[in-house]
Write a structure and sequence with these properties.
heterodimer, A: 482 residues, alpha/beta, Aspartate Aminotransferase, domain 2, Aspartate Aminotransferase, domain 1, 2 domains, two-stranded antiparallel sheet, 15 helices, 11 strands, B: 448 residues, 7-stranded mixed β-sheet, 4-stranded antiparallel β-sheet, 14 helices, 14% strand
C-alpha cells in the first residue's frame, strides 16, 4: 500500500484546489481597520485538487468497513447500511433547509420527525419519543434528566442510580453527569441481574435502575417484569439502554416489560452508518408520565399542519441545537419504510440466528463463561488460549491478518479477556463461515504457534501500535519541525 | 425489501447445526407473557422505486429551498467544493465504526489527526478533540470542563451567545451545582464591559463570550480575556461561524483557555439543523480535562508512524462515572467533511471566503441601511451578520418579502424581547450582488 503523508507534509506555498468567483461588490476600504485580523494561518495546507483526491482515496484504503466484510463488533450492531438511505438523505429539499425557516416551508421535515417518533413508539411500545439526542450517550443523559425532573416535581430528585456490573461505560458516566451517585448491581451465575442484590439496594433514595436488555452478554433479562416491579414498588424508574434493540424488534416491546424510559441507537438497529464514529442518533422513548418533561421543541400536528411547540413548562429544556441529527433520522425513516412490519421482525430473528450459529460453531474452541442462552451476540473469552500465553488482544490482531474485523474486547467487565461477537442479520452464511474458520484457525495456532498471534497483525498497513507511548507522550497534532 | 443474505437452505442448515428446529426456539429464553402476539403496526414494506416516490412526495412539501434566504443565526450556507461530497461518500469512510482497531483504521485516524491540527491552527489552541455533537453541546461541555478545572460555582455567559447554546448550557448544568449569570450587550452590540466588571468575582469559574457574537459583532477578545484572567477566571471563546477563522485572529492569541463552537460552515449543508460539527480545543495544561475522543501519533513495532485513539483514561469506557464526559459516538464523518473542505479551500481559499463574507455583508448592510425607515441596530464591526431595526412588525415585513420569494432576516423578538422590531441578516459568499439588490428592492416596496 502507498504510504500517505500528512497533508501538511505535501503542502507548498501558492498551490490551490479551489477558487471563488471574483468579488462582485465594491470592496469597502478600511473594512479591517481597527479589527484584530490575521495575516496568515500558519502552516495551513496548500495543495492541488488532484493531491486532495489522492490523499483521501489512499487514506480510505487503509480502513476496514462494513462495505468490505463482516464487522462483528459486539454491542455496535455493524449491519449493512442501505445505499438508498444515503440517496434520500441527500435530497436537496432536506439538505438545504434551514432549521429556522418558517414552519410552513419545512412541513416535509417536520413530518419526517413525527413519523419516526410514532414508528419508534410502536416498535418499542412507548407512549412518546424525542429524536433530539445526538447519540446513545446523549440519549442516556436525556433519559436520566427526565427521571430527575419527574422525581424533583414529586418533591425529591433522589440520589442513586443502580447499574448492573455488565453495563456499557456510558451508563455510569451519564448518570453521574445528571448528579447521581452510581451503585453497581451484581450479576448472578446466569450473567443477569441478581434479584436479591437489587431488592436490597432498591430504596426510596434510588431514582432509577439502568438496565441493558438483552444485556451486554446477549442474555435476555428473563425476570425483567419482576425487576421492574421491585423498582416501581419503591417509586423508582426503569431505564433501558436499547443499544441491543436489534434482538427484539417485532418480537417483544420494552414498553410491555415495565420499562419507563429507553434510548435506541438509530446507528445500530436502524441501519444508519457509523461514519467512523458518528454522527449517530439516540432517540429517547418514554411512558406518558414522563412525556411532559421531554426536551423542547416538540413536533405537533395542529389544524392539519405540523408545528414546533416550545411552550412546555415542565420540559428539561434543550439538550442540543435545533432538532437532532436530522439527516440520520431521514435514513432511519427510509429503513423502516423499506422493511415494513415483517422486515422489522425478520432483522431480529436473523440476527439471533446468525449469532447462535457462530456461538454453536465456536463453543468447543473458545471458552464461554456464561452458558445461558443468548440472542443477538455471544461473549467468549480467551481462557483456553491463555494457557498458551495468548490473550484476546492477540486473537483480535490475528483476525486482522485473516481479513475480518475483530470482536469487542473492552467490555463487559464481568468477562475477563472478552470476545464479544455480534454478526448482525445482514451477513451471508459464507461470510459467517469465513469468520468462524478464521477463529478456528487462531485457536489451532494458539496451541501450535502462539508466536504468530503475539506478533500479529503481519500484513496490515501498520503493525501493532504502541498505545502506551501515545498516551505517555501525547502528540495530538502535526507541528513543523524546528 | 430486506437486507438479509441467507437462503432458506442456509437457514435450515444453520438451525440444524445449532440443534433447534425453528428460529422461534431461539427465543425460548423470553417469557411468553411479554412476547408480542401481533404484527407491528407499521406501513407495509416498500421497494426502492416506491420508497423514492414516497420521499419525493415528502420533500415536495419543503418549499424553503425555492427562496432566496438571508437566514444565518448559527447555520450558514457556504459553497461546498465537489470533492467533498464525492470523497466523503466513500464506503471506507462512511461504514466503519469508531477506530478501536487502529491497524485497520489508519484512514479515519489520520483524518482525525489532521482535523485536530487544522482546528489548532485556526483557534490558536494547543490541543483539539476529535469532535463533539454540535456548537450548543460544545459550549455546555466547555462550561462543565471549566467547573472541573477550578471548581468555582459561577459561570458568566454573554447574553450575545447563541440563545440555543445558552439554553443547552442551562440544561447541562442544572444538576451539577453550577449557576450561570448573563453579561449584557451595549450599544455596539458587543459585551457591556461595566456589566462584566460588576459580575466578575472570586466565585467566577469562567467567562464565556461568543465572537463574532449572535448579532455578528466581533468582540474585543483581548480586553475580556485579560479581565477574566485578572479575576482568576478561565476565558472561553465560542465561535458559531467558523468561516470567520479565515480572517479574524485566532482566539488563542488573546489568551483563551478553551475555544469551542460549531464548524458546520466547513463543508456541511444546513440539513435542518444536523448533523453538525461541535469543535473544542484548549491549552496544553488543560489536556486531561478535555472531553471527547483524541487521536494521537505513535509508532508500530517496526518503527513506522501510525495513529491511535489516545488518552482514553479520561473516557467513559475506562473511567465510567469518573469520566470527563459521557460522549462515545461523536461526529466523525462531519469532522472528515470539514477536513476535506479545509484542505481543499486551503490557506488562500479559506481567507478569500472569509474576506468575501465580510465584504458582501458590509455592502448589504450599507445598501439596506439606506432604505427609508431601516437602520443598523448596533455600531459594532461585524463579520457576515448584522442586525437591522425596522419601523414596523418584523413578521409582517417578512411576510411581504415572502410574497417575492425571499426569506428575510431572523426576527429577534422571540429571543430578545428588547430587540423587538429587529432582524438578524446573514450574507455569505453565495449571495450575489444581484440577489442583495433583489432583497433591497423588495424591502423598499414592502416598507413603502
Amino acid at each position: 500500500m502507498i504510504r500517505e503523508p500528512l497533508i501538511f507534509e505535501i503542502s507548498a506555498k501558492g498551490k490551490r484546489a479551489f477558487r471563488l468567483p471574483k468579488l462582485d461588490v465594491k470592496a469597502k476600504k478600511g473594512i479591517f481597520e481597527g479589527l484584530a485580523i490575521r495575516d496568515e494561518i500558519k502552516d495551513f495546507p496548500q495543495v492541488s485538487e488532484v493531491e486532495v483526491v489522492r490523499h483521501f482515496t489512499r487514506l480510505s484504503q487503509q480502513n476496514y468497513c462494513v462495505d468490505l466484510g463482516i464487522y462483528p463488533l459486539g454491542s455496535c450492531t455493524m449491519k449493512y447500511n442501505p445505499k438508498v438511505n444515503e440517496k434520500v438523505a441527500a435530497l436537496d429539499g432536506f439538505v438545504q433547509s434551514h432549521p429556522l425557516a418558517p414552519m410552513d416551508m419545512v412541513q416535509g421535515n417536520l413530518e419526517v420527525i413525527k413519523l419516526v417518533e410514532d414508528y419508534l413508539s410502536e416498535i418499542a411500545g412507548m407512549d412518546a419519543f424525542t429524536l433530539q439526542p445526538s447519540a446513545g450517550a446523549q440519549g442516556e443523559l436525556t433519559g436520566m434528566m427526565l427521571i430527575h425532573a419527574c422525581h424533583e416535581a414529586r418533591g425529591n430528585p433522589r440520589k442513586i442510580v443502580l447499574i448492573p456490573d455488565s453495563a456499557h461505560g456510558t451508563n455510569p458516566s451519564s448518570a453521574h453527569l445528571c448528579g447521581y451517585t452510581v451503585q453497581e448491581i451484581k450479576s448472578n451465575e446466569n450473567g443477569t441481574v441478581d434479584l436479591e442484590d437489587l431488592a436490597q439496594r432498591m430504596t426510596e433514595d434510588v431514582a432509577a435502575l439502568m438496565v441493558t436488555n438483552p444485556n451486554t452478554l446477549g442474555v435476555f433479562e428473563y425476570d425483567i417484569k419482576k425487576i421492574a416491579e421491585i423498582v416501581h414498588a419503591k417509586g423508582g424508574f426503569v431505564y433501558m439502554d436499547g443499544a441491543n434493540m436489534n434482538a427484539l424488534t417485532g418480537i417483544c416491546r420494552p414498553g410491555d416489560m415495565g420499562v419507563d424510559v429507553i434510548h435506541i441507537n438509530l446507528h445500530k438497529t436502524f441501519s444508519t452508518p457509523h461514519g467512523g464514529g458518528g454522527p449517530g442518533s439516540g432517540p429517547v422513548g418514554v411512558k406518558a408520565i414522563l412525556e411532559p418533561y421531554l426536551p423542547i421543541p416538540r413536533v405537533e400536528k395542529k389544524d392539519g399542519a405540523f408545528v414546533l411547540n416550545f411552550d412546555r413548562p415542565k420540559s428539561i429544556g434543550r439538550v442540543r441545537g435545533f432538532y437532532g441529527n436530522f439527516l440520520v433520522i431521514v435514513r432511519a425513516l427510509a429503513y423502516i419504510w423499506t422493511l415494513g412490519p415483517d422486515g422489522m421482525r425478520e432483522i431480529a430473528e436473523i440476527a439471533v440466528l446468525n449469532a447462535n450459529y457462530i456461538r454453536k460453531s465456536l463453543e468447543k474452541d473458545y471458552h464461554l463463561k456464561y452458558t445461558t442462552p443468548t440472542l443477538h451476540e455471544c461473549v467468549f473469552s480467551d481462557k483456553f488460549q491463555k494457557e498458551y500465553g495468548v490473550s484476546n488482544l492477540d486473537i483480535a490482531k490475528r483476525l486482522i491478518d485473516l481479513g475480518v474485523h475483530p470482536p469487542t474486547m473492552s467490555f463487559p467487565l464481568i468477562v475477563h479477556g472478552a470476545l464479544m461477537i455480534e454478526p448482525t442479520e445482514t451477513e451471508s452464511k459464507r461470510d459467517l463461515n469465513m469468520f468462524i474458520e478464521a477463529m478456528k484457525q487462531i485457536a489451532r495456532e494458539a496451541k501450535e504457534n502462539p508466536g504468530i498471534l503475539k506478533s500479529a497483525p503481519h500484513n496490515s498497513y501498520v503493525r501493532r501500535l504502541d498505545e502506551t507511548a501515545a498516551a505517555r507522550n501525547p502528540i495530538v497534532k502535526w507541528e513543523r519541525e524546528k | 425489501m430486506s437486507y438479509i443474505s441467507l437462503s432458506n437452505k442456509d437457514k435450515k442448515e444453520m438451525l440444524e447445526r445449532i440443534g433447534v428446529s425453528a428460529i422461534d426456539d431461539l427465543y425460548g429464553c423470553l417469557p411468553e407473557e411479554i412476547k408480542l402476539k401481533r404484527r407491528l403496526n407499521l406501513p407495509e414494506a416498500l421497494t426502492e422505486p416506491e420508497l423514492l416516490r414516497r420521499f419525493e412526495g415528502l420533500v415536495a412539501s419543503n418549499t424553503y429551498a425555492d427562496h432566496l434566504s438571508f437566514l444565518g443565526a448559527g447555520v450558514y450556507r457556504h459553497f461546498i467544493p465537489s470533492v467533498v461530497d464525492y470523497l466523503s461518500a466513500r464506503g471506507e469512510f462512511v461504514t466503519p465504526y469508531t477506530p478501536y482497531q487502529p491497524e485497520i483504521s489508519q484512514g479515519t485516524l489520520q483524518v482525525i489527526f489532521e482535523y485536530q491540527t487544522l482546528i489548532c491552527q485556526l483557534t490558536g489552541m494547543d490541543i483539539s478533540n476529535a469532535s463533539l455533537y454540535d456548537g450548543a453541546m460544545a459550549a455546555a461541555e466547555a462550561v462543565l470542563m471549566a467547573n472541573r478545572l477550578n471548581n468555582k460555582p459561577k459561570i458568566l455567559v454573554a447574553r450575545s451567545l447563541h440563545p440555543q447554546y445558552r439554553e443547552t448550557i442551562r440544561t447541562y448544568i442544572k444538576n451539577m451545582g453550577v449557576r450561570i449569570e448573563e453579561i449584557g450587550f451595549g450599544e455596539s452590540g458587543g459585551i457591556d464591559t461595566n456589566d462584566l466588571l460588576n459580575k466578575l468575582d472570586k466565585d467566577t469559574s469562567a467567562v464565556l463570550i461568543q465572537s463574532p457574537n449572535f448579532f455578528g459583532v466581533v468582540e474585543d477578545l483581548q480586553k475580556f480575556g485579560d479581565l477574566a484572567h485578572e479575576h482568576q477566571a478561565l476565558f472561553i471563546v465560542a465561535v458559531a461561524e467558523a468561516a470567520s477563522f479565515g480572517i479574524l485572529e485566532a482566539p488563542g492569541k488573546f489568551g483563551a483557555d478553551v475555544v469551542c463552537g460549531e464548524a458546520q460552515s466547513f463543508g456541511l449543508p444546513p440539513s435542518f439543523g444536523g448533523p453538525f460539527l461541535g469543535f473544542m480545543g484548549c491549552k496544553k495544561e488543560h489536556l486531561r480535562q478535555l472531553p471527547g475522543r483524541i487521536a494521537g501519533q505513535t509508532k508500530d513495532v517496526d518503527g513506522k508512524r501510525g495513529f491511535v485513539l489516545t488518552l482514553s483514561t479520561r473516557e467513559q469506557h475506562i473511567r465510567r462515572e469518573k469520566a470527563t464526559s459521557n460522549i462515545c459516538t461523536n461526529q466523525a464523518l462531519c469532522a472528515l467533511r470539514a477536513t476535506m473542505f479545509l484542505e481543499t479551500l486551503g490557506h488562500d481559499g479559506l481567507r478569500e471566503m472569509a474576506v468575501q463574507n465580510m465584504q458582501k455583508a458590509a455592502y448589504a448592510a450599507e445598501k439596506l441601511g439606506k432604505i427609508n425607515g431601516v437602520k443598523a441596530r448596533f455600531e459594532g464591526r461585524f463579520f457576515n451578520e448584522f442586525v437591522l431595526e425596522f419601523p414596523g412588525d418584523v413578521g409582517k415585513i417578512n411576510d411581504g418579502l415572502r410574497a417575492k420569494k425571499i426569506v428575510g432576516g431572523l426576527a429577534l423578538k422571540e429571543y430578545y424581547p428588547e430587540l423587538a422590531g429587529c432582524a438578524l441578516f446573514c450574507v455569505t459568499e453565495v449571495h450575489t450582488k444581484k440577489e442583495i439588490g433583489r432583497l433591497a428592492a423588495a424591502l423598499k416596496k414592502v416598507l413603502r
